[in-house]
Amino acid sequence: MTTSTPTGRPVDLRSPAQLLAALPYLIGFRPANSVVLLGHRAPAGNRLGLVLRGDLPPRADRAHQARALAPRFALAPHTGVTLVVVGGRRRPGSPPPHAGFVELLADALGEFGLPVLHAMWAADISEGAPWGCYADPDCGGELPDPRATVAAAVATGGGSVAFDSRDELAALLAPRSPEALARRAESLARLPTLPWPDARCVSEAASAIRAAFERQLRGAGPPTDEEAVALARALTLPEIRDVCLGMAVPPHTPAAREAERLWLTLVQELPAPERAEAATLLGYTAFMRGDGTFAGMALENALAAKPDHVLAGLLKTVLNQGLPPDQLLGLALTADPTGLSGFGLEPADLEEPDAWLPAGVACGRSEFAAKPG
């Protein structure tokens, strides 16, 4: 199987040991006591499709979990599924543990015409951990150091990090200061409308976003309460949100990475429900660079902050259906068809802070002026 790491570069994972060792870089963290299902994308089946991870269920819940996981792979074209179980001990001369659960998963997937192409087990995803195959007793060995694999080198070279646990990855989305969030929530409640004149609100809001990027590039630290409130209000404008979506492409570029850093900062710095806008942008940007796990966490964060957030809900549905990121490329290109987004990420743009911003529009409209050549 060939997959793209979160850097966008393809990695050949036909070796079972290499595939197992690459799991932390495919899902963003080192799985433990987990079942991981990797879909093979149609039509050729040699590229990675939907990837799902779940906790290993108690014996009484195995059939229920199998029936819940299998239909997810029928929502998008797949040719089959590779199963990986992580956890448990293998007795000498016996098949890998949780073989009954693997059979239940295979039966549930088979009801949707999806064969299990390979089923593997590993005690842990770490150097020297034993691994084996359910169908072939002679298939197995010891895992290489996950940090020394090709997948690790490619991911690390692109700035990606594999966390030691799901909780460690999820902690990135936690508030930096609950006290600051309480102050900002109070300020936002006292400011129900946009803080800028109607005739200039889009331009002023864009300037607030650009200023946030400038502070980020200077390493100026988290926003002040006043800056955070202005950014929260700026992201409520459809025109601003659309250009921010456009910053996710091309993925893996410095501009896209800086944008993702800013959205993550704002998730940490904004209260609910305003946090939902930044979390949605973070989810979309992570999804476009191929990190479905973190994208899902960000979108769950957005929906926790604002359950009726339309875009977050749509993106979560698309993610759950296992569609590849390129299916949503049009969302960014439509949002920024001329490719002029950037909010001052390039030095030349910093010298002309308003050169491309909307001219002569009122809040709520989407008429952007082209940047002069």
Question: Can you describe this structure?
Answer:
- It is a single chain.
- With 373 residues, this protein is of the alpha+beta class.
- The protein has two domains: 2-159, Cytidine Deaminase, domain 2, CATH 3.40.140; 169-350, no CATH class.
- It is 43% helix and 12% strand.
- The protein has 15 helices and eight strands.
- The strands form two sheets. Strands 4-3-5-6-7-8 form a six-stranded mixed beta sheet, with helices on both faces.
- Strand 1 (2-4) and strand 2 form a beta hairpin.
- The longest helix is centred in the middle third of the chain and has 18 residues, at 201-218.
- It starts with a strand and ends in a 23-residue tail after the last helix.
- The model is unreliable at 2-12, 338-342 and 346-373 (pLDDT under 50).
Going across the biggest sheet, name each strand in turn. 4-3-5-6-7-8
Secondary structure tally: strands = 8
CA-to-CA gap between the ends? Answer: 45 Å
Q: How much of the residues is beta strand, in percent?
A: 5-15%
Percent of residues in helices comes to 40-55%
- Rounded Rg: 23 Å
List the helices and strands and how they pair.
Layout: E1 2-4, E2 10-12, H1 16-27, E3 34-41, E4 47-55, H2 62-69, E5 78-86, H3 99-110, E6 116-122, E7 130-133, E8 140-142, H4 150-157, H5 166-170, H6 178-190, H7 201-218, H8 225-234, H9 238-246, H10 254-269, H11 275-288, H12 292-305, H13 310-320, H14 329-335, H15 347-350
Parallel strand pairs: 5-6
Antiparallel strand pairs: 1-2, 3-4, 3-5, 6-7, 7-8
Helix pairs in contact: 1-4, 2-3, 6-8, 7-8, 7-10, 9-14, 10-11, 11-12, 11-13, 12-13
